[in-house]
Amino acid sequence: LAKTTQPISMDSYEGQEVNITCSHNNIATNDYITWYQQFPSQGPRFIIQGYKTKVTNEVASLFIPADRKSSTLSLPRVSLSDTAVYYCLVGDRTSGTYKYIFGTGTRLKVLA
Amino acid sequence: GAVVSQHPSWVICKSGTSVKIECRSLDFQATTMFWYRQFPKQSLMLMATSNEGSKATYEQGVEKDKFLINHASLTLSTLTVTSAHPEDSSFYICSALDTGTRGTGELFFGEGSRLTVL
User: What percent of chain A shows pLDDT beyond 70?
Assistant: First the structure.
């Protein structure tokens, strides 16, 4: 099972770009990388998913180097409402038997 | 809108009683669902993998007789906490894996169910 490692916490100020890096050294060929956001007392919410290079959507970008052993979630111009815990998950999205194991996550605090 | 729904969102029960939590995938069929529990300020811990039509696979250290999982249909999985005790108080979250028609392979999470055992 691919294990992920992230910084425990990060602080940022409103309007800044935040980059959160996740290490997944034993990622498998079929694994995709997915990032989730979780607010207190809520289930995780999908942010972005990618396999390689760069993926961008309306809320974030995901950068994945060629070796895929890490990935970086980029949140442009964060606001106070982006204060949350961010998790990266690695898994084979085509397999119904794959177990998605959460790491520690990164607790992001956005300051005014 | 939510594609995975949990019910109830919160429940308070007396010690010794059993509590059932439902997890439904609303617009896709989920052959596989996962149940997690989360304590305050901690990450989600996988409890078990629920497979439609077969027995659930429990993670090490999770009592299968304590946490009964039933996945009788492609859109519904239930978690029953039997003879609940205060230490079972936690936030329980289900997720469903969409490997079917939506084609995204995305893992959708429910809103969570907070169980408080008095």
Answer: 92
Q: Quick one: pLDDT band at residue B51, thresholds 50, 70, 90?
A: confident
Asked if B23 and B78 touch (Cβ cutoff 8 Å), the reply is yes
Residue B52 pLDDT grade (very low, low, confident, very high; cuts 50, 70, 90) = confident
DSSP codes, B78-98: EEEE-S--GGG-EEEEEEEE-
Of A43, A89, A93, the CB nearest to B93: A43
Which residues pair with residue A104 across a beta bridge?
A: none
Which chain B residues have a beta carbon less than 8 Å from that of A49?
104, 106
B-chain CB neighbours of A30 within 8 Å are: none
Select from B4, B31, B111 the Cβ nearest to the Cβ of A42: B111
